Amino acid sequence: MEEELLGSGSSKSKISQIFTRLSQWYQGVVDRTVPWRKARWFFAFLLLMGFMARIIIAQGWYIITYALGIYHLNLFIAFLTPKIDPAMDFDAEDNGPELPTRANEEFRPFIRRLPEFKFWYSVTKSTIIGVICTFFDCFNIPVFWPILVMYFITLFCITMKRQIKHMIKYKYLPFTHGKPKYQANEIGEVQSM
């Protein structure tokens, strides 16, 4: 009896080791892609184009496409949103958010709620899951796809309008071009470039 338990335990540990090694290999592959931003996004674009070609050729799975579009829209909004919402960041006197208002104030880079790498990783993973879903007929629910397209466009416009208003209200841009560079002039004063 004990031998049977030990035997089954060792097979579980071997399976566990295999999954551990496989997950370590996978994480290593993902980690090696970090420096290649353009190549990663090109791959994600090709994957999305392959998904769209599959949908157009198969003439179905519009619900999967709509769900994928909504998920990608949510990821994009999180990518454009600051990690700390200025609407919730009030100083002690409740005078409003503490953001730099002049060029000579402290430089604070834009920190995203969803970093670029996680954005790419989520887009790629969800697109692969979407492609896999298109191979199962149970997900091919018949719908009138023009309604889904119009609803998605309306949702996109409303969401982006709200995001742009938020950006204008709190005076931030979701892109940081780098820390300002300073150059000393002849007198020894430091001027911003």
Automatic annotation (TrEMBL):
Domain of life of the native organism: Eukaryota
Primary localisation category: membrane
Subcellular location: Membrane
Keyword tRNA processing found: no
InterPro entries (alphabetical): Rer1
Cellular component, GO annotation: endoplasmic reticulum; Golgi membrane
UniProt-listed GO biological process terms: protein retention in ER lumen; retrograde vesicle-mediated transport, Golgi to endoplasmic reticulum
Membrane topology: Multi-pass membrane protein
Protein name: Protein RER1
Name of the gene encoding the protein in the UniProt record: LOC115881423
